[in-house]
Structures are given as structure tokens and as C-alpha cells.
Design goal:
Number of helices: 12
Number of domains: 2
Domain GAF: 51-195
CATH class of the largest domain: Alpha Beta
Order of helices and strands: EEHHEEHEHEHEEHHHHHHH
Helix content: 40-55%
Distance between the termini: 62 Å
Pfam families: GAF
Radius of gyration: 22 Å
Organism: Sorangium cellulosum (strain So ce56)
Number of strands: 8
Protein name: GAF domain-containing protein
Shape: globular
Strand order of the largest sheet: 5-4-3-8-7-6
Structural class: alpha+beta
CATH topology of the largest domain: Beta-Lactamase
Largest sheet: 6 strands, antiparallel
Length: 379
């Protein structure tokens, strides 16, 4: 890639035109492309898991060594948060939560422009948000796009705590590593292909059952979110962050036992959501009706929202098991609370849509049965 394509020029020498579908938040340009449903559809299943992946972990270690940088990350830009799918050298609370707010990320600019981004001094560079600079002393950044099936999902990036220049040799090496990262993300995405053919009506019954279980689980997660909100922000800070407290779970006294139960509940939700996505994809593949195809879209949205709640849950778990002190956990909560609140609300809405969609799909795909028998589970 020619040096002229690198986003390393200071804002005073390189202007960006604002598209019609863009909005500006402070000094940061936010474009609707980040929420492109086709791009978001690739962020599913194994791609979003927080468990370690040997290939991705090896790539970030290699990136840090090549750049002689203390920190390297594979980031994925979801709707509300930036998920850190693999990392090397992050502060403990970020390593536990595996996320920051999407609006705080440098990598969003890589996704928007689909080219490398070079930041020599983040403190002076008006293109990037300053939260990570102020909280963690991040001063220099180099990030390159990572893709799955042609869509930019995030970035492979290296960061430093001192101002510095990442030269073309380093950027070229990162781009080569990004090929391996992209290949792995594509493989993880393909691992969530639809299951083998089965009776559509039976699958729809299982979708309904899964939505009821997930609805109860989301309700059980409320103590984690309420406790985080109470610990992180009072009403005055809520307003400053744009958090509408009227839509958040009511903060009450939360015992460690209830927090542990909520953490366990969230962990149980993940495989249920993955199975629901598989069922919905198989239904959409087997049935051409609009209601059936909509199920797959809503199921993927639900799975993404659950993944975006995960960072807050992992921080709570870190406090409970002693991995994190309260001060470190508070720094982590400040970065992910808004995203978790939005994702919790969106997940609850997605569950309702899934259940309604399953009922419509059952009616649309029922067809005549011998002897007038009712569809499975209709009683």
C-alpha cells in the first residue's frame, strides 16, 4: 500500500468530507457505515466469543514484537462496543472486560475508511477520542483493517504509551498479519453455518422455547447492570454520559450471591443464543417466507447484543473472584456501561421480536396435515 494511503497526516493538512448520513460528536466523525447490517451480520457466533483463540493470540503477540510495542489488539466493532477479540499487554481491567465503548475507539476510523490509521501522538491528534489517552496514557497507534468475507469487522492494531512514528515497514508487516487474522475470523464465521435439515415447525418450537429462557436470563442480569450503574454513575453523571436512567434496571442493594447468580446466568445464555442462531438460520434456509428469513436477522442481532453485555458481566466476575480491585473495575465500567445498557435494552426487544416472528413463521409454514393435526407444541 502506498504511503499516501495511510491516515497519518494531521487534521490540519488532511480534511475529511462529511457524508450526508454522518453525524459529528465533538471532534469525532461517526458514520452510519459502522451499523451496516451486512457488516454486522458477519459478527456472529464464534467470532464474538471471549474465550482465547490460539491463532488470534499468536497474531497479536507477533504484532507487538514486530512493532516493538507494549500493546497489540484484534478489535471488532459491534453496534455498541468495541470487543477486544485477542490482546497482548492490556491493563488488567481491559483484559478482563475484553471491550471498550465503540465511541472511545481509534479502530472505528479504520473500519470507516477501510485503510490503515497511523497516530503519532494521540494527545495532539484531533481525529481520535481522548478517553483512552486520559485513562491509560495511550499516545501512539497503528491499525490495519481485518475482514471476513470482504467486510471490515475491525482492526489489528499496536499501541504505545509514548508518542512515536510507526513507519511503512511496520504497517506493511501488520497488513501481512492481518491476512492471517482475517482468515481466522472468516473461518470462525463459517463455523456457524446452518444445521442439517429438520422439520421447520419443530425448529420454530425450539426457537420459541429459547426466547422464553433468554427472556428470564436477561431479567436475571438486571442486578449486574444496576449495581454497575449505581457504582459508576449517579444521576448527574448519567445525564452527562447520555444514559437515560428511566430505561435502566433499578439499582437496589445487590449481594455477592445475586451477582454470582447473574454471572452464571449470562454464561448459560451464550450457548442458548448460539443454538438459537443455528436454528433460525436453518429455518430461513428451508423456508422462503418473509417471517422465517426475519428470524435469522433478529437472532444474530440478539447474539451480538448478548456479546456486548459480556464485558460488564466479566468485570463483575473479576471483582467477585478477586482478579480486579474496585478502582480498576470502576475504570473498566466507565468504558462499557453505556454500551451494556443499550445492549441489554436491545436484547430484550430482540427476544420479543423473535418470539413474535416465530409465531408468524409457524402460521406461514404450517400447511395442511393429515387428519388436521396441530403443529408440534401448538397445544
Amino acid at each position: 500500500m502506498a504511503g499516501s494511503s495511510l491516515r497519518s497526516e494531521p487534521p490540519s493538512t488532511r480534511r475529511r468530507e462529511m457524508p450526508r448520513d454522518a453525524v459529528r460528536a465533538g471532534n469525532l466523525l461517526i458514520m452510519a457505515d459502522l451499523n451496516d447490517p451486512v457488516r454486522l451480520a458477519e459478527l456472529r457466533g464464534a467470532v464474538l466469543r471471549a474465550d482465547a483463540d490460539a491463532i488470534l493470540d499468536a497474531c497479536v503477540v507477533r504484532a507487538a514484537k514486530l512493532a516493538r510495542s507494549p500493546i497489540a489488539v484484534v478489535s471488532l466493532l459491534v453496534r455498541h462496543v468495541q470487543l477486544l477479540r485477542a490482546q497482548h499487554g492490556l491493563p488488567l481491567e481491559l483484559a478482563v472486560s475484553c471491550a471498550t465503548s465503540r465511541s472511545n475507539s481509534f479502530c472505528q476510523l479504520v473500519v470507516l475508511d477501510e485503510v490503515p490509521l497511523i497516530v503519532d501522538d494521540a494527545l495532539r491528534d484531533e481525529r481520535v477520542p481522548k478517553e483512552l489517552v486520559e485513562s491509560y496514557g495511550i499516545r501512539a497507534y497503528a491499525g490495519v483493517p481485518v475482514r471476513a468475507h470482504g467486510h471490515v469487522l475491525g482492526a489489528l492494531c499496536v499501541l504505545d504509551v509514548v508518542p512515536r512514528r510507526f513507519d511503512q515497514r511496520i504497517v506493511g508487516a501488520l497488513e501481512q498479519l492481518a491476512i492471517d487474522v482475517s482468515g481466522r475470523l472468516s473461518a470462525l464465521s463459517l463455523s456457524d453455518a446452518p444445521l442439517a435439515s429438520a422439520d421447520v415447525q419443530e425448529r420454530l418450537v425450539r426457537v420459541e422455547q429459547a426466547t422464553r429462557a433468554l427472556e428470564r436470563a436477561l431479567l436475571a442480569l438486571s442486578p449486574v447492570i444496576a449495581a454497575a450503574q449505581a457504582a459508576t454513575a449517579g444521576p448527574r453523571v448519567d445525564a452527562a454520559r447520555g444514559i437515560d436512567a428511566s430505561h435502566a434496571p433499578r439499582a437496589t442493594h445487590v449481594t455477592p450471591a445475586s451477582l454470582r447468580a447473574a454471572v452464571s446466568c449470562w454464561r448459560d445464555m451464550s450457548p442458548v443464543a448460539e443454538e438459537l442462531c443455528e436454528e433460525a438460520a436453518a429455518i430461513a434456509s428451508a423456508s422462503p417466507c418473509e417471517a422465517a428469513s426475519g428470524l435469522a436477522t433478529e437472532a444474530r442481532a440478539l447474539a451480538r447484543n448478548l456479546a456486548e453485555i459480556g464485558p460488564l458481566v466479566r468485570l463483575a466476575e473479576g471483582v467477585l473472584d478477586g482478579t480486579l480491585g474496585e478502582a480498576a473495575a470502576a475504570k473498566g465500567r466507565a468504558l462499557v456501561l453505556r454500551g451494556a445498557l443499550d445492549a441489554h435494552e436491545a436484547a430484550s426487544a430482540a427476544v420479543q421480536k423473535l418470539r413474535a416472528g416465530a409465531l408468524r413463521a409457524r402460521a406461514a409454514t404450517a400447511g395442511p396435515r393429515s387428519g388436521g393435526a396441530a403443529p408440534p407444541g401448538a397445544a
